[in-house]
């Protein structure tokens, strides 16, 4: 049976109902994605999401809004399979978490760990545009995430919070 790396995917939305997309530092040009990362042994999903978000973006001013009940899987393309060949992973199984960001952009810092800089730029965008901006092998997952999170980002309670 194929092994999938346990992973958490993180969507952060701000007062303008825009989501944070980050450009990977290890690619030429701009390859956009949401923050994501592995779940440590014994770590719960929310704790993993907060840790990965802090490590990759410096962001800590968030509160969880929703967690997808079922993880989503994708297979690695051939190039990534080589990177994970020793581990035996053929893809990732991601549990997705939506966070409301109540901080400011000044909090975003990609150099929290200079030995492992994941991203080089960020943009705030509409969640429905995220699947269009992601690499092909992740498009299906991003489409499902966008559909699941859209009601929470645009709900009336969120709108009240954003006017504060």
Helix and strand element order: EEEEHEEHEEHHH
Proportion of residues in β-strands: 25-35%
Q: Ranges with pLDDT <50 over ≥5 residues?
A: none
Distance between the first and last residues' Cα: 50 Å
Overall shape: it is: globular
Question: How does this model look, in words?
Answer:
The protein is built from five helices and eight strands; from the N terminus they run ββββαββαββααα. The chain is an alpha+beta fold and 164 residues long. Strand 2 (19-24) and strand 3 (32-33) form a beta hairpin. The chain has helices at 45-57, 78-83, 130-133, 139-154, 156-162; strands spanning 3-13, 19-24, 32-33, 36-38, 62-67, 72-75, 89-101, 119-125. Helices cover 28% and strands 32% of the residues. The protein has a single domain, classed as Alpha-Beta Complex (Nucleoside Triphosphate Pyrophosphohydrolase), CATH 3.90.79.
Features:
single chain, 164 residues, Nucleoside Triphosphate Pyrophosphohydrolase, 5-stranded mixed beta sheet, alpha+beta, 5 helices, 28% helix
């Amino acid at each position: 049976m194929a092994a999938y790396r346990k992973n958490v995917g993180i969507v952060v939305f701000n007062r303008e109902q825009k989501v944070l997309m980050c450009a990977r530092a290890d690619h030429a040009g701009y390859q956009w994605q949401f923050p994501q990362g592995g779940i440590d042994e014994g770590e719960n999903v929310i704790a993993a999401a907060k840790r990965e978000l802090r490590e990759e973006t410096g962001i800590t001013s968030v509160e969880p809004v929703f967690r997808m009940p079922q993880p989503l899987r994708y297979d690695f393309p051939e190039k990534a399979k080589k990177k994970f060949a020793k581990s035996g992973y053929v893809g990732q199984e991601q549990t997705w978490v939506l966070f409301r960001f109540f901080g400011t952009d000044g909090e975003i810092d990609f150099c929290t760990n200079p030995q492992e800089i994941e991203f080089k730029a960020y943009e705030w965008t509409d969640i429905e545009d995220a699947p269009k901006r992601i690499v092909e092998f992740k498009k299906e997952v991003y489409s499902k995430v966008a559909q699941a999170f859209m009601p929470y980002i645009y709900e009336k309670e969120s709108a009240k919070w954003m006017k504060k």
